[in-house]
Amino acid sequence: MKPVQTVSKQKTTMPIKPRKKLSGTEIMKKIAVYAVLLFIAFITIGPFLWLLSTSLKSGSENIFQYPPVFIPENPTLSNYVAVMEFFPFWKYLFNSVVVSVLTVLLNILFCSLAAYPLARMQFKGKNIVFILIISTMMIPFQLLMIPIYILALNLGLQNTYAGLVLPHATTAFGIFLMRQAFITIPFELDESARMDGASSFRIWWQILMPLVKPATVTLAIFTFMMAWGDFLWPLIILNDTSMYTLPLGVNALAGSFTSNWRYIAAGSVLSVLPIIIFFIFAQRYFIEGAMKGAVKG
Amino acid sequence: MRRSPFTPFLFLLPGCIILGAFIFYPMLQAIWLSFTDYNMIQEANFVGVDNYKKLFGDDLFWKVLGQTFLYLIFVVPALVIIPIFIAILVNQPLKGISFFRSAYYVPVVTSMVVVGIMWKWVYADTGVLNYLLESAGIIKEPVYWLTSTSTSIFAVMAVTVWKGLGYYMVIYLAGLQSIPSHLYEAAKIDGANKWKQIIHITIPLLMPSIMIVTIMSSISAMKVFEEIYVMTGGGPLNSSKTLVFYIYQEAFEKLQMGYASAAGVVLFLITLVLSIINIKFMSKKEDAVKG
Predict the structure, then answer these.
(1) Min Cα–Cα distance to chain A from B150, Å
(2) How many domains does chain B have?
(3) What is the rounded CA–CA span in Å between residue A95 and residue A242?
(4) What is the pLDDT of residue A7?
(5) Is residue B270 part of a domain?
């Protein structure tokens, strides 16, 4: 990203300097690079376009035609209208939003609470606690799903938001990420606050939390993506279809219309739309967040 | 004002209750269940190592385990190597590059269920993939990607790789941006071409990122579930079944919780060994680069 900035700066401060002309081979090179970039984009976006095209094809068009037709002859939204009858999109969307937002909020709260003493206090057993927390990253959820399922049944958490949210309400990754962020803040800050009589809780909430906003955003994005896309745990803990999140809803839709690809395609497009719209608006945070998570976490 | 000695633990409490209730306690219970015949209907009886004996005597378990390793062997190198080159490509100061970065990241934010459904349609016998390959002259007749025993698992692997590319690309991007540019300038003066720069500067300095990606992608490859559930259901003839799918079926379809827990313990041990090997192997390589 940086080179772009320096080049544009040069342009504005030295307008007299003529723009360097690209030689023939350089132009060819550029064309080749863009061709490769477009080819990869075609691979990553292509399947979405094919899904979209199918969802827009009218009933008179043969969707199994070979060779395939990429542009629908008479694009129509009728599949969307029809699928909305069977696919309670708004309910699933609401469930997905509730579950993801709750998971994000609880993670921010619990992970930063736990990270605070681990980063900024001395106490007996600190290292053991930290190692125990980090070691949970090695344990696959697939080993735990059976006992958690039994536990959730016993706690009456089946078909509840709590049942969907609680098992993911704290992650070792989140605690680690927040701890790394807290460590980078100068220690004099909380010492002087303590002299002024601030409690540990106030120091955490009023002084430290505002200073680690970038890490909090990273954690929020990561947790949101995990909770939004989660399939296995909701599949196990839910049997009431009115509690379904979007991924489960789409899966059920695909199961009930195994041959009606128009409806399945329309339902799938509906279900990815919210996250893709969200991504387009917040893509900077998505990509920056993932980059920060990689470096520090 | 002195702090009470309990203060740190008060802060740790909420998080530790969740981790305790939903990770540590279940972990111990999973190990205990693996020595019982628990089936959700009757009380659990202690049966010793019977589940493990049954597990290791089951041909399907070995087939599934073999396929899980096959998955690992193909998916991990693909996810470690391909995103490096994509990251180098999108790390250049080109016009519109952020569009491409976003376009490559879209599969990452899409839920695996929709990804699976979408690719099932791409893989269809009269689908767009067969058409493209046929028009390019690569295949002569349609391939039954998901319904043939010889291709199903590879077709699913391709989807796992497709979905992961953008994620690992971003991790490498972070690594690339921490490499000081003067190294490349010095190499250029010494007459090193682009390819030589990649081999001698980029790759060695990217080692920490490569380590992270290797660990993350191998652990996630061990746990692959959704794409198989949605696209093939483990079939045909179990040809695309992997360990987690097997555990899921044994536990939640056949209700053999004890037996499935034993398979879960095996999964845990493999994950553990993989992480240790990865960390050891990679830290040695890193030392070699630094020294």
Answers:
(1) 23
(2) 1
(3) 9
(4) 43
(5) yes
**B165: domain range?**
45-290
Report pTM: 0.89
The answer to whether position B15 is within a domain reads no
| Alpha-helical runs (H) found in chain A | 2-13, 24-55, 78-86, 89-120, 126-135, 141-154, 161-165, 172-183, 188-195, 200-202, 209-211, 213-229, 232-237, 246-256, 261-296
Tell me the per-residue pLDDT of A116-164, one tens digit each, with 9 for 90 and over: 999 999 999 999 999 999 888 888 888 899 999 999 999 999 999 999 9
**Does the CB of A87 have a partner CB in chain B at under 8 Å?**
no
Evaluate whether residue B13 is within a structural domain. no
Name every chain A residue with its beta carbon within 8 A of the beta carbon of B173. Answer: 287, 291
Report yes or no: A224 and A279 within 8 Å, Cβ to Cβ.
no
Testing the interface with A: which of B1, B114, B243 to mutate, by most A Cβ within 10 A? B114
Cα dihedral A278, A281, A286, A291, rounded to 10, equals 170
Name chain B contacts of A182, Cβ cutoff 8 Å: none
Using an 8 Å CB-CB cutoff, list chain A residues near B108: 225
- Kindly provide the ipTM of the predicted complex, given to two decimals: 0.89
Q: Tell me the two tokens of residue B107.
A: 């599969």
Q: Is residue B34 part of a domain?
A: no
Determine the Cα–Cα distance for residues B213 and A131; give it in Å rounded to an integer. Answer: 22
B166: CATH: 1.10.3720.10
